[in-house]
Amino acid sequence: MWQQWLITLRSRPRGFHLVTDEVQDALPELASCRVGLLHLWLQHTSASLTVNENADPAVRRDFERFFRRLVPEDATGFEHCDEGPDDLPAHFKSSLLGVQLQIPVSQGRLALGTWQGIYLGEHREQGGARRVLATLQGTAN
């Protein structure tokens, strides 16, 4: 079984956002997969996907603080600044964290750990809606 969908995640402010439920809700066909893999590909260069803590929102706030310090907007010496001061830092953050995830599927559910969730890292002040191409491969129930 191979299936593919384009998911549009709603626009969010800069920061790290838990999107696990939004992704799962867009894929009701997951329920028919006994065992498989879900590949998520974010079609943007100024946002990212990662898996981390799903319970304490302080973790997501700390992620944002860390990455703002790691890749500051006021750094000098870079050429690409056509779209504002958050543009090139957003590209750096996207490359550091990545734009794809591969998550196991077991008995019709994402096989995430108890405290794991899918984060969208929104690295722009005005990033807008984000598109994720979701590809499911596996064995149907």
How many domains comprise the coordinates?
1
Looking at CATH, the homologous superfamily is: YjbQ-like
Task: Summarize the main sheet.
Answer: 5 strands, antiparallel
In CATH, the architecture is: Sandwich
Q: Low-confidence parts, pLDDT < 50 over ≥5 residues? A: none
Approximate shape: elongated
C-alpha end-to-end distance:
10 Å
User: Taking strands numbered 1, 2, ... along the chain, how are they ordered across the largest sheet?
Assistant: 1-8-3-5-6
Q: Structural class of the helix and strand makeup? A: alpha+beta
Tally of alpha and pi helices: 3
Q: What would the CATH topology be?
A: Jelly Rolls
Helix content: 10-25%
CATH C-level class is: Mainly Beta
Instruction: Tell me how many strands there are.
Output: 8
Task: Round the mean pLDDT to the nearest integer and report it.
Answer: 96
Order of helices and strands: EEHEEHHEEEE
> In percent terms, what proportion of residues is strand?
35-45%
What are the key terms here?
single chain, 141 residues, alpha+beta, Jelly Rolls, 5-stranded antiparallel beta sheet, 3-stranded antiparallel beta sheet, 3 helices, 22% helix, 40% strand, UPF0047_YjbQ-like
